[in-house]
Design the sequence.
């Protein structure tokens, strides 16, 4: 018996290394890549889905022809639900990724997926099968940002909507995605066009669009088209949010399109942040932010935290049709957008998901020093965390916990900023004024937020020249999934309602709150007219003082 | 815009507030907290538990214990003075000693633990050390200690620290796990059964015979419906799947190595990771198909301790002689190997996933590790080698 034990552990590790490995939570909608743990993260019958892993397939994917087969390049994909085993239809194979069609007759509910590569089976992974769960394809293949929608100009002229080829209200667009649901014909033959019976709605800038067609494209298995008319009252902008809702409740990923009055290249007159993204140029953007959060959900003791941060971004951007950066590519005033991703947002590095490297290159702006008034002045210096990117804590406090030092820094008032200059920029000086934060008047009434009802925020005391934003989201820790939203208020408004669809893919809180995170934030920032600074080497230098108030909540 | 995160200060404070269980940690008992006292009465010894409450005066209650009734000539050095729980354990006045390696490991994702507490100085990287004199305290939180040699489980109150009840469960209990709702403790007994304890009454409510299975490690699914129990044997090693609600064995999953020891379940419940006595590997069981989905092999003996971060993206696995392996649960690659104390035993991760603690059996330290940066922060001194470990939330979320 002891010999058997020794033999059992003599198995070389290399055998395990060569087997195909499907990543846990690595099976996602082929367009949205929405994290499986989120409400919209299930795989629809008949849809194109993606499997991530290692050693999954051959180096190159063989060509395809109808009828599609159950095996491609030595790879087969099986989905087991109870005693039922279904063969998915692989359409692309590679060592790190497989794309396949989930057959329309796959049983709904929890199932187990595995692949077999040249007779070597992978590990099984759990997946969820649903009747419809739509994902919109995106230009950057990330599931967020500019969507793949084509502007109908004529039968022979249907360019992809972009910053340079915008659409206009009333224009017909074709939206491309996958996940409308099952079809009645075989999934492995050329699809038969025709509207599917699933209730399908498209919203552009929060406005419902007329639908002319919702069904399979004629070209490709698993690929859906939705032909829509841009609502006449859709807001204009370079990144107008678009999403699809099926069955009245299943909400897709949010993408963006460019809308103008005349179909010309878009612009963002009320938001200076993406100026370089739209026109190109070198930009330096410095943001000093105070984030004050009231923690009163899921805790034994209420706490208030203050975090003062300095962030900066120096980059050379090239104009491009699909430029997008969630930090700067904001939805139009009066609208909301949503982002989802795999991960625990507050513990993930960087800012909002989908933040992309510059279209050109990062710039070296040297260290940045911020000094407060007073005698002697307090200085803090931030060096770049990564080329062109700065995020430095300046201080903070938890006033409700005695004994902890109060190192808060960005108290309302004036601050002097100076840049040491680097390889790409010369030194600069500027003055920043931190405004008083707005007063969030219904903050303490928001604790449990029902996602199906949406919620409203009210405020007063917004400083002149400031734009109000509302953001937030939730994290499902065991599922390692985050759903977030960002809304921009209209100038002069003192309230904003976050609609249910924007919250549809925010994960609901677990009964054990320690397994979830949820927060809502109200902030102001001068994006329409920030302080500008000059520095040789930069076409544009922007300085923003940002005040954010936050509160922990439970999304239900 | 980057929203506020739970302040780093708050996170570290949470770590400082975590009550860490080891042996013999308090140097001197504080009369203001509960303690033991061994008295000589009428020529024989009697152990008392002195419970200090807000009502003026302390109450002393006799504690049933094997030392009671013995001649006063024994253990004279312990008589007549306040004793901490750790001292009581160390001197076998309270059962649950530290010299049976396989018995007192608490499930690392269980809220319950064993033995003793100490309040430690944890320097905050952003500031000077802070002594926590009034940690968050939830009077309803209990810990459960398996006492292998005398066949009992001890229910320990954590606020204040006190023995609430010693529960007979039968011979050779090994490990304990608590259902997510806190209502039930399940105890594995090497002598072929699993015991249910109602944590409200601290009574045994059911015993499930396991036939030819020798229960050892146990992990409970996040929804509380399934318990996965290792069969600590070399013939037909396996993982039992138990219906916790209906108290029945559902099925058995064959495992590939002898003496499967500990079972740890991922936060989403999709996998159970199993290690083996004197083994270098960890097998990963898929809980939907109930098959061994994958395995990881190390160049060292894997110890009892395994834990996941709250998102399940990392596994922390203790290995001989003094290492903690950090494994990416997606790729199954080892991200880092951290040197900790000698013969690391148990691993526990804070609720925010920022820190973790590792006990070591052969060194008088508990290692504090940055669970995000995968690096050792500090080795915290203890009075003796520690084994089982758990963290109790201090009220910060």
Sequence:
């Amino acid at each position: 018996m002891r010999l058997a034990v020794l033999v059992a552990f003599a198995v070389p590790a290399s055998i395990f290394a060569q087997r195909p490995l499907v990543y846990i939570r690595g099976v996602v909608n082929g367009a949205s890549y929405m994290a499986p743990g989120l409400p919209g993260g299930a795989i629809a019958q008949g849809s194109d889905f993606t499997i991530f892993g290692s050693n999954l397939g051959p180096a190159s994917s063989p060509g395809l022809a109808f009828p599609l087969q159950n095996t491609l390049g030595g790879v087969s994909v099986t989905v087991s639900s109870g005693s039922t085993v279904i063969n998915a239809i692989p359409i692309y194979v590679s060592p790190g990724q497989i794309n396949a069609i989930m057959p329309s007759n796959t049983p709904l509910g929890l199932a187990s997926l595995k692949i077999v590569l040249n007779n070597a089976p992978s590990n099984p992974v759990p997946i969820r099968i649903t009747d419809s769960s739509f994902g919109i394809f995106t230009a950057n293949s990330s599931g967020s940002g500019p969507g793949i929608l084509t502007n109908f100009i004529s039968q022979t002229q249907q360019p992809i909507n972009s910053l340079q080829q915008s659409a206009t209200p009333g224009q017909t667009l074709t939206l491309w995605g996958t996940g409308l649901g099952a079809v009645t014909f075989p999934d492995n033959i050329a699809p038969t066009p025709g509207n599917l019976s699933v209730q399908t709605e498209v919203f552009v800038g929060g406005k419902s669009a007329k639908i002319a067609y919702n069904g399979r494209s004629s070209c490709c298995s698993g690929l859906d088209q939705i032909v829509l008319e841009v609502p006449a009252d859709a807001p204009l902008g370079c990144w107008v949010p678009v999403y699809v809702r099926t069955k009245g409740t299943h909400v897709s990923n949010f993408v963006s399109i460019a809308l103008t009055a005349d179909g010309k290249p878009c612009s963002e007159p009320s938001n200076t942040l993406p100026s370089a993204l739209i026109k190109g140029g070198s930009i330096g953007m410095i943001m000093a932010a105070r984030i004050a959060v009231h923690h009163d959900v899921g805790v034994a003791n209420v706490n208030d935290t203050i975090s003062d941060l300095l962030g900066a971004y120096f980059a050379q951007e090239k104009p491009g049709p699909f430029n997008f950066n969630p930090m700067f590519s904001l939805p139009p005033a009066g609208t909301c957008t949503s982002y989802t991703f795999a991960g625990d947002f507050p513990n993930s590095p960087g800012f909002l998901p989908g933040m992309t490297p510059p279209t050109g290159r990062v710039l070296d702006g040297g260290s940045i020093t911020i000094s407060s008034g007073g005698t002697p002045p307090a200085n803090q210096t931030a060096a770049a965390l990564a080329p062109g990117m700065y995020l430095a804590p300046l201080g903070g406090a938890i006033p409700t916990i005695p004994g902890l030092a109060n190192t808060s820094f960005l108290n309302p008032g004036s601050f002097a900023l100076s840049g040491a200059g680097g390889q790409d920029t010369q030194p600069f000086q500027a003055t920043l004024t931190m405004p008083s934060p707005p007063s969030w008047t219904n903050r303490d009434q928001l604790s449990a937020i029902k996602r199906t009802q949406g919620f409203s925020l009210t405020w007063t005391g917004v400083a002149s020249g400031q734009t109000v934003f509302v953001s937030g989201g939730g994290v499902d820790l065991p599922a390692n999934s985050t759903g977030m939203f960002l809304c921009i208020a209209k100038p002069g408004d003192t309230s904003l309602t976050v609609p249910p669809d924007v919250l549809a893919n925010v994960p609901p809180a677990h009964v054990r709150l320690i397994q979830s995170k949820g927060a809502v934030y109200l902030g102001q920032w001068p994006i329409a007219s920030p302080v500008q600074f000059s520095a040789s080497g930069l076409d544009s230098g922007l300085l923003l003082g940002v005040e954010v108030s936050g509160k922990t909540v439970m999304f239900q | 815009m980057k929203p506020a995160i739970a302040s780093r200060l708050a996170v570290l404070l949470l770590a400082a507030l975590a009550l860490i269980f080891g042996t013999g940690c308090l140097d001197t008992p504080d009369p203001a907290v509960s303690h033991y006292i061994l008295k000589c009465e009428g020529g024989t010894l009697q152990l008392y538990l002195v419970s200090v409450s807000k009502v003026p005066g302390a109450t002393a209650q006799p504690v049933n214990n094997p030392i009671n009734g013995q001649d006063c000539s024994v253990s004279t050095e312990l008589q007549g003075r306040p004793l901490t729980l750790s001292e009581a354990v160390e001197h076998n006045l309270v059962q649950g000693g530290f010299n049976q390696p396989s018995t007192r490991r608490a499930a690392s994702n269980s809220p319950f633990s064993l033995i003793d507490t100490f309040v430690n100085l944890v320097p905050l990287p952003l500031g000077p050390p802070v002594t926590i004199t009034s940690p968050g305290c939830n009077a309803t939180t209990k810990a459960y200690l398996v006492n292998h040699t005398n066949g009992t489980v001890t229910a320990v109150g954590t606020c204040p620290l006190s023995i609430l009840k010693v529960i007979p469960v039968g011979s050779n209990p090994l490990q304990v796990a608590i259902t997510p709702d806190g209502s039930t403790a399940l105890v594995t007994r090497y002598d072929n059964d699993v015991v249910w304890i109602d944590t409200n009454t601290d009574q045994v409510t059911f015993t499930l015979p396991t036939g030819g299975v020798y229960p050892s490690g146990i992990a409970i699914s996040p929804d509380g419906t399934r318990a996965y129990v290792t069969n600590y044997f070399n013939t037909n090693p396996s993982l039992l799947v138990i219906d916790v609600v209906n108290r029945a064995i559902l099925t058995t999953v064959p495992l590939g190595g002898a003496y499967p020891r500990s079972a740890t379940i991922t936060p989403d419940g999709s996998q159970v990771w199993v290690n083996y006595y004197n083994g270098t590997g960890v097998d990963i069981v898929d809980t939907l198909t109930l098959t061994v989905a994958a395995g990881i092999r190390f160049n060292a003996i894997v110890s009892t301790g395994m834990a996941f971060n709250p998102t399940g993206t990392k596994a922390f696995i203790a290995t001989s002689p003094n290492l903690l392996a950090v494994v990416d649960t997606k790729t199954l690659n080892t991200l880092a190997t951290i040197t900790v104390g000698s013969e690391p035993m148990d691993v526990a991760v804070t609720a925010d996933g920022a820190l973790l603690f590792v006990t070591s059996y052969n060194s008088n330290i508990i290692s504090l590790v940055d669970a995000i940066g995968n690096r050792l922060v500090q080795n915290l001194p203890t009075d003796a080698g520690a084994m089982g470990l758990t963290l109790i939330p201090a009220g910060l979320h």
The radius of gyration of chain B is 21 Å. Chain B touches chain A through 61 residues (CB under 8 Å). Chain B has two helices and 27 strands. The domain at 8-26+95-381 of chain B is CATH 2.130.10.10 (Methylamine Dehydrogenase; Chain H).
